[in-house]
Amino acid sequence: MLRYLARRLLGMIPPLLGISIFVFLMIHLIPGDPISTMMGRVSDPLVMAALKAQYGLDKPLPEQYFIWLGDALRGNLGYSISSQEPVARMIIERFDRTLYLLLGGMLVALALAIPTGIVSAARHNSWVDFGLSTLTLVLMSIPEFWLAIMLILLLAVQLKVLPATGFVYPHEGFGNFLRHMLIPCVALGASEAAMIGRLLRSSILDALRQDYAMVARAKGANERRVLYIHVLRNAAIPVVTVVAIEIGYLLGGAIVIERVFAYPGMGLLLMEAINTRDYPLIQGTILVFALVFFVVNLITDVLYTLIDPRIRYT
Amino acid sequence: MSDATASTMIGPLARSRSRSGLAQVLYDLWRNKKALVGSIMLLSVVLVAVFAPLLAQYDPNTLSTGPLLAKPGGAHLLGTDNFGRDSFSRLVFGARISLLTAGAVIACSLAIGVPVGLFTGYLGGIVDYLVMRIVEMFFAFPWVMIALALAAIMGPGLQTVLVSLVVVYTPILVRLTRSTVLSLRELEYVQAAHCIGQTDLLIMFRHILPNTLSPLIIQSTSIMGFSILAEAAISYLGLGTRPPTPSWGLTLSESSSYLWMAPHLVIFPGLAIAYVVTSFNFLGDGLRDILDPRYRRR
User: Fold this and answer.
1) Hey, are the CB atoms on A26 and B149 less than 8 Å from each other?
2) Domain ranges in chain A?
3) pLDDT tens, position by position, B235-245
4) Cβ proximity of B177 and B216 under 8 Å
5) Contact between chains at B229 and A143 (C-beta distance less than 8 A)
């Protein structure tokens, strides 16, 4: 297991380096010089030269990259142009809020998907199955941000039972924290729930046709026992893989959801950075998002071995 | 074997052989209810987009066609927005933006992704290794990251949306085409083609490519549906289509500030998006069944 983890970590380095090169080059890909891009037009050549020296932009590009990479590895992601605060500190302040949203969204997705997938598979080809399949397909077709707006309209505007915006930390009142998180997490998790539920359904149906399920029935197990004791764990394997991939989509969805709710997370920070052309902040945020995605994939690979002991990583 | 049994066995095969290719496709679409519903829904959207100038009562960008934020009814079927523009007119013209986005994204993604996947899968070796490492890097990014990064570089606009989505979906098609080609290139008929001296290029395009079409068609319907959702999301974030283009996502972005006063401005564009994407999803589900080789034996 440790050897596998080490190999996996080493395997992450090339794509992470590739992403770091892209993130670093972002500011240089924009037409015009980076100083003008960040700060607007600078007419005095002496001022321009001083600014370039200050930001290290007078050095060759490969040297700039390695300096930037070295700083990033030491946790120094530069300074925000608009607020002059360290980018790393700005990201850390908001990181946990986005994490709550992601975890909440995935919890909602799994809480809805698991019973839906199981019921749909257990009642295969019935009206219940047909209804759930249609519902999940329609849910996958609804834009998350529109669902969020509709939930705000119903629950915050019409019924006035939940707040429309804002964030409260759990230690500041767990009940209030849940009230603020409910609509964003449901909006974020609903279409994921539909996708995961459909996948779980087809995975269970495949597993129910396997020889070991037939043997279990031949030995006298009823269909409920076959499903819950024998089949479900095997059917979960492909779902775990997809859940990891879907974290990437949830990250993207979180950015949009944060905009809808003015939720003070990393997504909203990134949007503000793009609107103000704050490129050090854009670079830092995108780099952190990519890192989170990689770490989640690594955790999923480890979970894979826990669910399926037949998998041996050599 | 009795004559009745024999005719039952050969009946479906004889019936399928008697139809032309197009007729068989239309028959299969008719027979599969999901594909039929999806096709009808999609056709309705295409007709709305094509006949938008006839259906719309007003030009979608004309200001003050009526009272500001008017409710649905009367002269304005779906009301008006905060500039007095007719919402129904903007809705039907918005169908053009969505279908254009879906069509352009899939056309470009297929044009780039399929040949790359075909060559990579067939040739293998160092070319395959390098291309797949580059493709894997794109899978490391959530799609919104790529769109936002490109918007930061290129500036907001529909062209940014299209480029972002092509960058997101082309790797998916490369990987799909490659995996299909890997399974096909070892088959006997490909080896036989080698034996009789056919060139690699001929084998790739004449023998292998046609057999990759089924999974590509199914994936394409999915991509078209998701690209409409993606365009709406990027436009909602203010990085996609620019005002006064009547994109559904942009309309949602502009109207969400008036949610309390005019909820109808938010409800109908969202329903329109859901309708179009549902049609692609139904069609994709139906095609998945139709193109399954076990389907024709029923």
Assistant:
1) yes
2) 2-73, 88-307
3) 888 888 888 88
4) yes
5) yes
